[in-house]
Amino acid sequence: MAELGVIGLGSTIRGDDGIGVALVHELDARKLPESVELYDAGTSGMNILHHLKDFDRVIIIDAIRQEGDPGDWVFFHPEDVSSSMEIRSTHDANLFEALKLSETLGERPEEVVIMGVIPADLSLSEDLSPELEERLPELVGALEEKVQEMVRPA
Amino acid sequence: MSNNVNIDVEYLTRVEGHGNIKVNATNGKIEQCEWQVIETPRFFESMVVDHSYKELQHITSRICGICSIGHTLASLRATEDALDVDISRQDELLRKLILHAENMQSHVLHVGYLALPDLMGTGSVLPLASSHPEELKTVIRLHRLSNEMSELIGGRTTHPQRLIPGGFSKIPTEEELIDLRERLKNSTNDLTACADVLEATADGFPDFERETEFISLTSDEDYAFYDGIIASTDTGTYPVEDYLDVTNEFVVEQSTAKFARNNRASYMVGALARLNNNYDQLAPMAKGVAERFGLKPVNHNPFMNNVAQLVEVVHNVRDSIKIINTLLDEGLEAQDDYYEPEIEVKPGRGIGAVEVPRGILFHDYTYDENGICTAANCVIPTNQNHANIQKDMEKMVPNAINTKPEDEIKLDLEMLVRAYDPCISCSAHHLDVEFVDD
Question: Taking CB atoms and an 8 Å limit, are A97 and B126 in contact across chains?
Answer without folding.
Answer: yes
